[in-house]
Amino acid sequence: MYIIQIGSECAPVIKAGGLGDVIYGLSRELESQGHTVELILPKYDCMRFDHVWGMHDAYINLWVPWNGDRIHCSVDCGWVHGRLCFFIEPHSPENFFNRGYYYGASDDPMRFAFFSKAALEFLLQSNKRPDVLHCHDWQTGLIPVMLYEMYQYYGMANQRVCYTIHNFKHQGMGGSDILRATGLNRPEYYYDPSRLQDNHHFGAINFMKGGIVYSNYVNTVSPHHAWEARFTEVGCGLQSTLELHQTKFGGILNGIDYAFWSPESDRYIPFPYSAETFGDKKLNKKALREKLALEDSDKPLVAFIGRLDGQKGVHLVHHALYYALEQGAQFVLLGSATEPAIHNWFLHEKNFLQSNLNCHLELSFNEELSHLVYAAADLIVVPSNYEPCGLTQIIGLHYGTVPVVRGVGGLLNTVFDWDYDETHEPKDRNGFVFFETDQIALESALGRALDLWKLSPQLFETLAIQGMNCDYSWKKSGTQYAGVYEFIRHKFPALVPEEPASDPSASA
Ligand code: ADP
Questions:
Q1: Which candidate in 70, 276, 285, 294 could, as Cys together with 376 as Cys, close a disulfide (CB 3.0–4.6 Å)?
Q2: Is the peptide bond before 65 cis (omega within 30 degrees of 0)?
Q3: HSE of 398 in the Cβ direction (CA atoms, 13 Å)?
Q4: ∠ CA 90-92-96 to the nearest 5 degrees?
């Protein structure tokens, strides 16, 4: 099959979180299964150009119809660790992707509506006709809408769309200016509860809802989160839309790319190790302590790696830090916050703990350092309020770093409690799980983990190695996605609207 992934990130060239890892890792797996995979991404000024090989012009005159006019774009092409990526660069006064950051502008909906339109125009004008477009998150939610309402009339009637939701919290909202700019127009048609109208803000269109309504298959990134999204407030207002489209909605667990995330071959860790040479892991612990000027002593090391925001349970992250120190452990935090209040809170803690040789708070996004922290730590805490899948616990497992997680979303599908899990044999358990959102719940799980480390080191090592032996590679999930593509390609009828939505000659 010929598959094109379209999204706003691809690790390691553009990475703000798990989305980038997933788009890269899935693409690599699909290629290794014999499919042809290409990626379409925005060309941000701040992306890591050092991870692109062979960048060259692919299409220098892409004119994208926009707001009744046209915007000139160029498309560059290069390989990101073997994956063929097309980067779209608009040349317009709006400077859509030259802002020094990926997300967080007040015109984000307009920026990514433009990216979606430009991606379709690129396919149309360059005569690329993949079997399947795989679109990711709200940034690309309007692609299936425009494909079925407009582009199928321009010669793209045979393309099918798989739409993956990585986070329901961010849905992308806009007004009729978006409809006008994209050429969709007809607000009276799209402001309809069965199409794009937001389920709660009736004056807004919702990109993610559009993705759900118009795609041939929709999924989120773990089976448990798919259930939560349909039946609990975690669906962030889209529950009724998911209910209506339940026959094409499911959950496919994320994997990780074991070629990139493997303690045996990780380019960023000084001492490679495996389950067989588990003892060497502690050399990395020593290396991290040296790097961060932590005390070198016989203490367990607890880590947190992730975005510092409400989703990740920052209050419990904060509590885990002090609880670990109180219990005689060390703590390393690697996190970045987008909200100034959260950043300032952790900055204050960092300054307060400056002279404490048992903890280090690194308030930045640092890919290289994250690898060393995974390799060095004994435990990794993931106390999320909600977690569509979560990659940090999966990476932790592969590095023999025992996860302590809250039992929500994908965390529940990947971590099985050492003491209490009744659905898994003791030999298949791999971490510690708690359920409530209070400090006592976290202490109960982290306390059990630290006790096992201190009182039964041999059993702790057994648990860590059981985690390393879990298979969360992309193999199984990649095969599941390929099955979905195959299904929608052959069996799923096109969503033919009643009439052409706008004059096809207005585009192209
Ligand atoms: P998210 O909700 O942010 O997507 P995931 O757990 O799915 O969370 O994925 C997070 C990814 O981002 C992991 O690869 C993790 O190692 C990485 N990551 C998160 N924060 C940082 C950071 N501050 N520095 C380096 N890597 C980070």
A1: 285
A2: no
A3: 21
A4: 60
- Determine contact, residues 142/207, Cβ cutoff 8 Å: yes
For ligand 1, whether the C-beta of 17 sits within 6 Å is: yes
pLDDT bin (cut points 50, 70, 90) of residue 491 is confident
| β strands within 102-194, DSSP E | 132-136, 160-165, 173-174
> Domain residues for 42?
2-255+477-492
Q: Same structural domain for residues 462 and 486?
A: no
296 lines ligand 1 (CB under 6 A): no
Residue nearest to atom 8 of ligand 1 (CA): 18
**306 CB near ligand 1 (under 6 Å):** yes
Does residue 485 form part of some domain?
yes
Is 93:153 a contact under the CB 8 Å cutoff?
no
- pTM over 0.90? The answer is yes
Note whether 198 and 341 are same-domain residues: no
Beta carbon of 336 within 6 Å of any ligand 1 atom:
yes
Query: Is 462 exposed, middle or buried, given 0-12, 13-18 or 19+ CB atoms closer than 10 A?
Result: middle
10 C-alpha to ligand 1 centroid (Å): 13
Residue 82 and residue 220 in one domain: yes
Beta bridge partners of 41: 87
Exposure letters 210-228 (e unless 16+ CB within 10 A, then b): bbbbbbbbbbbbbbbbbeb
Closest by CA position to 136, among listed 205, 194, 208, 198: 208
Q: For residue 424, give the CATH number of its domain.
A: 3.40.50.2000
Domain count, the chain: 2
Do 403 and 282 belong together in one domain?
Answer: yes
